[in-house]
Backbone:
């Protein structure tokens, strides 16, 4: 059985699993962050958990770039830079910005996240740098790449700004939650998720690939139910929560 056949089967199965996870997460909120609870087994420090999960994606994608057949183009380096910009931040910078007392994350969630990131890095890295047939340097001048890169950068900025606002809510020793204000919090309850959805929609467009689209679908399957849970959580906890805020899409939902 060829790798291409295995790869194609994995893509189909991965998309089907995303649909299942999307429905499941409307009924079971993943137990980390504000939703951490007992009954999910052994837990570890959440900063360590984030680093373990996200660093795998950064390292594996870089490995597929190094081992790839189509890595010696400006386009390949552009894809590498985009991916690593997100995952180096997510693995090594974001966890250090989690202020307040140390929180816990179930090892089971870390394992799920690690598995997802390994499969995702394989699908995207292996395709872009080996199975795709390569992207010419002229790809960087196509409307698809330019628009995709624009969305990627815009999403990264919204995501980063929102994370900074959230991390700034807690003073040293403060363990409580507050209503965030500023930035895209003016319009939605989870602009950090809106930013991440925009990042990977941009990636799917910039790479114009089924693995890229699969990543965007998985991001939506994971974050849309959690954004809804966040919105309901805020409304139930804070009677003065701004009524004009939507779940995830400004002015719509």
Residues:
């Amino acid at each position: 059985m060829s790798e291409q056949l295995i790869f194609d089967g994995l893509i189909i199965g991965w998309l089907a699993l995303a649909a299942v996870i999307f429905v499941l997460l409307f009924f079971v909120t993943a137990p980390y962050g504000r939703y951490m609870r007992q009954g999910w087994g052994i837990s570890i420090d959440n900063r360590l958990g984030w680093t373990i999960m996200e660093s795998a994606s950064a390292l594996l994608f870089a490995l597929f770039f190094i081992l790839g057949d189509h890595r010696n183009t400006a386009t390949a380096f552009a894809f590498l830079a985009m991916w690593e910009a997100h995952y180096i931040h997510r693995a090594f910078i974001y966890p250090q910005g989690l202020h307040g007392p140390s929180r816990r994350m179930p090892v089971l969630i870390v394992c799920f996240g690690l598995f997802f990131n390994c499969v995702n890095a394989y699908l995207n890295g292996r395709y872009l740098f080996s199975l795709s047939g390569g992207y010419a340097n002229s790809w960087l001048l196509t409307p698809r790449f330019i628009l995709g890169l624009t969305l990627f950068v815009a999403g990264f900025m919204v995501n980063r700004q929102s994370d900074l606002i959230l991390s700034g809510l807690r003073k040293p020793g403060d363990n409580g939650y507050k209503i965030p204000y500023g930035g895209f919090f003016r319009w939605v309850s989870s602009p950090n998720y809106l930013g991440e959805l925009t990042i990977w929609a941009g990636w799917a467009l910039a790479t114009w690939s089924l693995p890229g689209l699969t990543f965007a679908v998985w991001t939506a399957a994971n974050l849309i139910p959690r954004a809804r849970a966040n919105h309901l959580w805020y409304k139930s906890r804070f009677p003065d929560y701004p009524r004009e805020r939507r779940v995830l899409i400004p002015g719509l939902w």
